[in-house]
Amino acid sequence: MTQPTKYTQSFDFSDYTTSNPTNPIQGVRVDVELTALKASLDAVIDNLVFLQNDDTTIKNQSIGLDQLETSLAALLDGSAIIAAAASASAALVSENAAAASSVQSAADRVASAADAAQTALDRIAADASATAAASSVASIAPGASVGLVLALS
Fold it and tell me: Which helix (H) or strand (E) holds 100?
């Protein structure tokens, strides 16, 4: 598809009629001008069929990224969308990793607190056993309980 030929008037009818007011306009000259106009207009219409549908909408696939402003083309370019999605995904992974680390840290603190509580319970149980043992000894031999309690401590 080539560009249409631009119409250029080859005969000036106004000048002719001014110079020759009594002579009729030459039909051959009119035909030449009308033929040139028709050729130019036909070429425009032939090219228009590649750009416009019969309902005057723009033909599908007649406009591509190269015809758009750079800023708009960047928004529509698939690689820009993929890059944005990848960036968002990486941020989400990073946030999830940070959250997982926080959860693990909290779980470690809970486990440490549970260990400390178990140690305290074990001491309380040991102390209770020692007190019970001392009470048993005291009931058997009242003077011996002080030495046993000191020995168990």
Answer: helix 78-140
- Where are the alpha helices (H) located in 49-77, listed in sequence order? 70-76
Does pTM surpass 0.85? no
- CA 73, 76, 78: angle at the middle one, nearest 5? 115
- Number of neighbours of residue 134 by Cβ within 10 angstroms: 20
3-state secondary structure of 34: helix
The domain spans of the chain are 1-60, 72-152
Q: Residue 68 to residues 1, 64, 83, 88: CA-CA distances in angstroms?
A: 21, 7, 20, 26
- What are the tens digits of pLDDT across the range 69-78? 887 777 776 6
Question: Roughly how many angstroms between the first and final C-alpha of the chain, as a whole number?
Answer: 106
